[in-house]
Amino acid sequence: MFEVMMYDGGVYRSEELYELIEDVGGVVLQKNRSAQMLSVTMSVPEEDRAAIEKVCNDIGGVVKEVPLAGTEIAVVGPTLGRHHMPHPICDIAEELRRYGAITVVMGMARGRGKATSQISMTERMILDEYDGVIFMMGNFKSCVEKKSELMKDIHVPTLLVSGPVPEGIEDTCDAIVTGVGRKASRMRTPPERAKLDEIADTMVAILRDKKRSLEEDPLFVHPAEVKQILEEYEPINMCLRPAPMVLHLDGLRIKIPYHEHREYLENVMVYGRRLGEVADISPSKIDDSSVIVRIKTRSQVEDESKQ
Fold first, then answer.
1. Do the Cβ atoms of 270 and 278 come closer than 8 Å?
2. Which of 78, 211, 237, 286 is the most buried (most CB within 10 A)?
3. What is the pTM of this model?
């Protein structure tokens, strides 16, 4: 089994860490450098964790737990306007990044107005591409209760964040965190920071059920291993978009055009099988500039082989 962790420290001697990750068969998931400081999210074999921690300590860094690493989460406001996209949405997205997640902030095309807000089928299909979704609603109880319909028919774990405590909408989402509404300033005070931790911990908890279901019927190949195989593919290696490959719990997002590279991706060999045989490969619903790879479970692959 692979284990995900984050190195946080200086750039000095970081090459030693990269070499060890490669030696043990691990994968660098994400690197962020700011001046002389560096954070590296990595996926390494569980039995080699102690060796990785030793090197991190030797070069003056620390190892942090990142329970949301290997996930991509959407933080959604009703619209991208100033009225609906206040500071707490950005603070929530940043807090999830501290937990290791890749986050995307989104607004809906028709989210304005309690009586007129709506979500299209295309928007629902876009949100279904992520591992989890956080809806940030606002300060008015009746408005939150009415707009809870926006969360229906979304098939990934969903968390509602709002100011008041809504009633009668428990069936529309997996969890609710209240006490965070619209405000025109950053969440800096200790109670506000504690509320951000509560939101992130709640998302960790609701994603834990999805991870358990994957453990009961494991994927044919771990997404990190597919990422490692594809890293040398030149169009991905030369891609200038942030994080050209993003891990999901059950696959990954590859930020290259689907129609141009579909044939190559389908024929990549993974443990003696074509990737197209052990995964569903499709274009992102956002546009043709990304590819969504959903890896099948071992039982699915076995059943299809028998057929």
1. yes
2. 78
3. 0.86
